[in-house]
């Protein structure tokens, strides 16, 4: 969750915003993450905890057959700040 001046934006709301404002297909993203190879490695881990390499040099953290987060490569794990945000394209204004 993101808090700002006592107000909160849930992770679910952030996902819906990305999906609707930026036309990001979440199912397509899920398919890009959960490839056959990743699923095979997750089954090997089973109901424990572990890490699975993903495409784009990323790593999935797995717990109980669920990807709970995705990590950047070690050399790129600097904390994002207001001075160093990841750039995003402008949102889709739907005809405006």
In words, what does this structure look like?
By secondary structure, the chain is an alpha+beta fold. The chain has one domain (7-76). 30% of the residues lie in helices and 23% in strands. The protein has helices at residues 11-21, 26-33, 36-45; strands spanning 2-4, 7-9, 49-53, 59-63, 66-71. The strands form 2 sheets. A 3-stranded antiparallel sheet has the order 3-4-5, with helices on one face. A hairpin with a 5-residue loop joins strand 3 and strand 4 (59-63). It starts with a strand and ends in a 25-residue tail after the last strand.
Question: Main attributes?
Answer:
alpha+beta; three-stranded antiparallel beta sheet; 5 strands; single chain; 30% helix; 96 residues; two-stranded antiparallel ribbon; 3 helices
Structural class: alpha+beta
Distance between the termini: 29 Å
The percentage helix is 25-40%
Provide the number of structural domains: 1
Number of strands: 5
Can you tell me the residue ranges where pLDDT is under 50 for at least 5 consecutive residues? none
Topology:
Blueprint (H helix, E strand, L loop, with lengths): L1 E3 L2 E3 L1 H11 L4 H8 L2 H10 L3 E5 L5 E5 L2 E6 L25
Antiparallel strand pairs: 1-2, 3-4, 4-5
């Amino acid at each position: 969750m993101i808090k700002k001046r006592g107000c909160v934006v849930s992770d679910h709301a952030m996902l819906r915003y990305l999906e609707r404002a930026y036309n990001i297909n979440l199912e397509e993203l899920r398919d890009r993450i959960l490839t056959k190879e990743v699923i095979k490695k997750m089954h090997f881990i089973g109901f424990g905890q572990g890490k699975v390499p993903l495409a784009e040099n990323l790593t999935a953290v797995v717990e109980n057959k669920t990807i709970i987060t995705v990590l950047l490569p070690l050399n790129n794990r600097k904390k994002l700040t207001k001075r160093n945000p990841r750039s995003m394209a402008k949102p889709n204004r739907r005809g405006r």
